């Protein structure tokens, strides 16, 4: 007789090239940036921008950056996600849950992860995009991809999506524990929460009835109208973390990194915030990357190295970066709780 059906869990992170070879990085960047939710401009313009400019010129530079963080287990984004899966499997009963991982772009694919769950005859699927704040470019893209795949199945599965989790108590507790394990020093001149940016137009497009005006009035509190405003969610995360970590609110700053192209992205930009901090006399800064759960190029290289240089060139003395949650036990507990609360 068949056993009682389990619940399938699919954890999805962004993606990573198969290797640090330039052709693999180019293939990854092409798939990633041709996503209409990431570069949300008309198809032909996107095609020429990605294939004619970004992929050819950026791939060698990105490949060199990947080489800095690559290990014999591959890309950090991938192996941290594998470690998270392995630890979660130990915490959830295998009789009740089957846990798989996927990358939105490249490997392991979402198709492969969903197919493993289908073969396991799960009774429902819980999809957790590993981005704490909802953005169309990340969680939205993962959810759309899952929908595109399962809509072709003969038997349509029951699927639930965890669209954001930046206010989950265990997410905040995990950041507290990781921070305390990194440093107990509270003698910093400033604390900087640097989030991945997105183009301003993506905020406007996700806004309810024109609520989001991209200013501090609309983003300074969370309401039903701006619950999916990525900028408002980031400011909300900063407020929650400030309280949880017991940081002096007047020393806390929020900013947005990784701008690509000439269009306006959400502000303030991290680079300008750092220069302003240094100009106002800050010598010692503690930085956090709370839009990411696993360390990757954007944290280790961009925040940990490039922004450190910007700070030091502007007169700063000490730039410290708190690592991401990676596969910390409390973060694994958070994912377990998210899964159980949605079961
Ligand atoms: C061009 C538009 C981009 C949007 C919009 C965007 C949103 C976005 N991205 C993340 C998380 C990650 N992005 C990463 C890398 C990355 N992102 C973009 C562009 C956009 N991102 C580029 C061009 C790159 C590649 C950088 C390079 O290879 O040089 C990564 C890191 C991947 C890794 O290290 O393996 C993550 C993670 C979020 C959370 C987000 C919107 C909220
Ligand atoms: Fe990105
Ligand atoms: Fe807003």
TrEMBL record:
Principal subcellular localisation of the protein: cytoplasm
Organism this protein belongs to: Echinicola pacifica
Function noted in UniProt: Catalyzes the ferrous insertion into protoporphyrin IX.
InterPro entries, A to Z: Ferrochelatase, Ferrochelatase_C, Ferrochelatase_N
Protein name listed in UniProt: Ferrochelatase
Reaction equation(s) it catalyzes: heme b + 2 H(+) = protoporphyrin IX + Fe(2+); Fe-coproporphyrin III + 2 H(+) = coproporphyrin III + Fe(2+)
Gene3D superfamilies xref list: 3.40.50.1400
SUPFAM superfamilies (UniProt xref): Chelatase (SSF53800)
GO CC entries: cytoplasm
Binding sites annotated in the UniProt record for Fe(2+): 196, 298
Statement: the UniProt record of this protein carries the keyword Iron: yes
Pathway, per record: Porphyrin-containing compound metabolism; protoheme biosynthesis; protoheme from protoporphyrin-IX: step 1/1
Molecular function (Gene Ontology), one example: ferrochelatase activity
Family stated for the protein in its record: Belongs to the ferrochelatase family.
Subcellular compartments: Cytoplasm
Record-linked HAMAP family: Ferrochelatase (MF_00323)
